[in-house]
Amino acid sequence: MILRELFLAVAGLVDLAFTIYIFIIIGRAVVSWVNPDPYNPIVRFLHAATDPVLNRIQRYVPLQFGGIDFTPMALLLALSFCQRMVGAILTSIAYSF
Asked: What is the mean pLDDT of each run of 10 residues along the chain (97 residues)?
């Protein structure tokens, strides 16, 4: 009973972490449409939080077509898939107790 609640709580926290990171990526994409001040703390945070992952994806799979970068969209799809898979796995583990 306690293990079930623990796994369900962990599943909720993992889901929340995925959701927050997805919103950070969306914020980065929206900010990239304008010419932001690179010294703005919010812009610096968005770049610091997303650049390592986006640069790694761009290195292996170049997704720029006609000046439009589709790397954030690919990352959003991958994160959404992982969010559902991890949530389903943790929930099934929780209900197996």
From this structure: 91 97 96 90 96 93 85 95 96 90
What gap in Å lies between CA 85 and CA 80, rounded to an integer? 9
CA dihedral (11, 49, 73, 61) positive or negative: negative
Q: Is residue 88 a contact partner of residue 23, using CB atoms and an 8 Å limit? A: no
Given a contact cutoff of 8 angstroms between Cβ atoms, the answer to whether 13 and 90 are in contact is no
Which pLDDT does position 6 carry in this prediction?
92
Tokens 């959404």, located at residue: 80
| Structural element, H or E, at residue 63 | none
Placement of tokens 């994806």 in the chain = 57
Q: Give this prediction's pTM.
A: 0.89
- Per DSSP (E only), the strands in the chain are 64-65, 68-69
| Residue 42 CA from chain centroid, whole number | 17
